[in-house]
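tool_log.txt
---
The assistant was asked to compare two proteins side by side. It first ran the structure predictor on the initial sequence, then on the second. Raw inputs and outputs are pasted verbatim so the downstream comparison step can read them without reformatting.
(1)
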Amino acid sequence: MNEIDLRMRLAALRQYLRDNQDTLTSREVDEILDVISKIMEVLAVISKKPGNS
């Protein structure tokens, strides 16, 4: 999975959370937020690699 794929996955998860926030349990919201957090961590690492700006 490359950076673009990760950014698309991140956007999709955020949209899913917005669209379904009224029907999701707090546990489901927490799980989605955990995945979003992990993706953001990976993107931060990728952006620090030499050759990325």
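(2)
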Amino acid sequence: MSLLLVSGACCLPVLAAAGPVSSSGPVGEVRVLPCGGAAAGGLGVRSWCGRGARIGDRELVGSAARAWRAAPVVRPPEQAPISAFYAETGPPGQVWMTVVGLAAPAPEGGELVAFVTSDVVDIAGGAGGPDDARLRVRAVTRLVDGSPAAVGFVDHTPDPGDAVAVEPAVAAFAVAAPGTGVRLWCALTAGPEDHAGGVDPVTWVPQVPGASAANTVAVGSGGATVALAPGVDDPAVRPVLPDPVTGRVGSGRPGDVLAERGRWRGTLDAGSVPARALPQGWRAVTAVTDHPLALDPAPAGEGFAVTSPVPDGVEPGTRVDLVSPAGERLVLGLLAAEFRVSSAGPGTAARGRWRVQPTEPPDLGARWPVLVIPAA
């Protein structure tokens, strides 16, 4: 089998699969666009050039495409062309596994992006390396519109073949659009929200225990946050696309929590429509210090009114999170305060009412799926 250059695109012939790596006949080809050449027409990850030290490994890329076509999860349409945009084995000491990034048109519009991987070798390092004969689809997401600043996944729950490190960590990966950088940020980490632009073209940094696609985001070079895909069998979250008109989540249940790019985006009501009611059992707390706050919904567009005392030393701009009984954590917004003239005299001011103001407008299914955290 040889590499073919077709109209500026490198194509790998691919065989159909009865299992993850066996073959039984042709079904199409995997396209790999060269970097430095003319960009492919149209938008989306399929227009990205192929990167990673192993993007030219036709056996690896072909096996990954066969694994995706044969997977029991979301698969590409039977005759749809598949594009490979990344292939590499991660470094020991970080998330040590092989990742192949694939993209294909989605039947309902947009495109599917899949991450086919090996098992994770002990993140702390160990003998040997990833076994590329054991490829599986670890995550799949649907991009609805446009080309994101990055794509990636967070696999909250280890797969059966993954090594369990002495200090548990969560496998995560992200690759930036060509010519840009990416980093990961998780709401479970201590410290203020940090959306400084990413500088590395790819990141394999393992995340803290409890990290998931609901509370972890990719941050592009310009500081824009991008949703990450959950693992295909992740029990903590599942991707959904709300109805674009009503916002209704057909597969949702009352009390389910909607999360998008690490933020709380509503709690499903009796009609499975996102409502501004805080989820039952979740606590509002200041980030880092975990000071509890009592909140009531303010008029639309004004976030939540703080109805409990705000301690000294807490300043406007402090991040406020929602924390579930199980330890899930989502960003709610930033503290804001109304100022009034102080009784101390002219030229002085005192803080009046406090509120929590959302920091970013929601993107409920316009570009990528949002995530449902099932009600307890």
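---
observation on (2): Residues 1-28 have pLDDT under 50 and may be disordered. DSSP finds one helix and 26 strands in the chain.
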